Amino acid sequence: MKHFQEAASKVEAEMPLGIGRVQLIQKFWNEPIDVVRTAYTHHLELALLPRSDHAIGCFPEHWGPHRFEPIGEVFLMPARHMVHAKSDCRHQSSVVCNFDPAAVAKWFEGDLEWTDGRLRGSLNIVNAQVRGLLFRIGEELRNPGFGSETMTELMAAQAVVELSRHLLSIGERRAIGGLSPRNLKLIDERLGDAGVPPALSELAALCGLSVRHLTRAFRVSRGRSIGRYIAERRMDHAKQLLASGTCVKSVAYATGFTAPSNFSAAFLRATGETPRRYKERTNRKSDAAAAIQSKIH
Question: Does a structural domain hold residue 2?
Fold first, then answer.
C-alpha cells in the first residue's frame, strides 16, 4: 500500500510541552482522504468541525486491509501502529496533541496491551473527560493567559491519564448483537473474490444466519450497513486495478459491472471523479514517487 496524498495545513497556534506538543490546526484536502501512515508519537485529536459520517480507519497490520471502523470526533492514532484512514472530509479544524511515547510511558503504556477492542476504541473515544480537556487545551492555545504553559502541561498530562483509564476499561467482549470474528472473516474473504459481489442471501447462508439477522448484526459490528460495506470493497478493488494500469473496461467487468458506463457512473458517485481521471492521477503520483526514489538511490 502506497499513498502519497498530503493535506494542506495551517498551524494557528502551538505549544511545546515536556511530554510532547499541542497544536491548533486547520487542514484542507482537495480530494477525498485516503492515506496510510505510521506515527511515531501518540496522536490524539479532537475534530472541532462536524466529523464526516464516512470517516473510517483501519489498522491493517492487525486487521488486514479490508476491515474499517468509524472514526469519531475524538480519536487516537497510537505510536508505531500503521493506520489507513478514509474520509470525504475536505476541511477540518482540530486540537492535536502529539505525545512522546517515552515521556508518557509511566501513565500510558505500562499495563496497556493493544488488543482488538482497544484499537477499535481508539478510533472513536467517547469520553467526556478526554473531550473536555482537549477542548480546554484548544481554548488556551487560542487565548493564552497567565500561566498558560503550566496550565496546558497539566491538562495534557491529565488527558493522557484519562485516556489510559478509558482504554484500560475496554474489554474484549464482542459488541452485543454483533457478528462473531469468524463470520466477519468469512464475509471479508468472500468479498475478496473477483466478479459480481455476492447477494445478501449468499452471505447470510455462509454465516448460517437469516438475512435480517445478518444485516442487523453487521451494522452493530462495523458501524455501517452491509450494503454500503460491499460497495466500498467493490470500489477499493476497482481503485487497486486502475492504479495498477488496468484499462477502465477491464476493471468494469472484473468488478462485476455489466457495462463500462455503469461502472463509470458508480465510480463517479462513490469517489467524485471518473475512473479515467483517477487512473491518470494515481499513475502520475506513482511516476513522481518513482522519480524521487531513483534520485535518492
Answer: no
Helical ranges in 34-93 per DSSP H = 60-63
Identity (one letter) of the amino acid at 70?
P
Task: Check: pTM over 0.70? Answer yes or no.
Answer: no
**1 in a structural domain:** no
Strands 20-28 and 8-17: antiparallel
Helices (H), the chain: 60-63, 101-108, 116-122, 128-142, 148-168, 181-191, 200-207, 211-222, 226-243, 248-254, 260-271, 275-296
Please check whether residue 14 is in contact with residue 24, taking contact to mean a CB–CB distance below 8 angstroms: yes
The Cβ of residue 208 has, within 10 Å, a number of other Cβ atoms equal to 10
Residues β-bridged to residue 87: 33
The residues near 232 (Cβ < 8 Å, ≥ 6 apart) are: 68, 270
How far, in Å, CA of 261 to CA of 286, rounded?
26
- For 130-172, write each residue's pLDDT tens digit: 999 999 999 999 999 899 999 999 999 999 999 999 998 886 5
**Cα angle vertex 114, ends 226, 6, to 5°?**
65
Grid coordinates 488527558 are at which residue?
159
Contact 27, 37 (CB under 8 A): no
Q: Using an 8 Å Cβ cutoff, are 80 and 106 in contact?
A: no
Q: 155 and 37 in one domain? A: yes
Find the largest Cα–Cα distance for the chain: 67
Structural domain for 201, as ranges: 175-223
Length of the chain: 297
Q: What sign results for the dihedral spanned by CA atoms 191, 194, 200, 206?
A: negative
DSSP code of residue 174: P
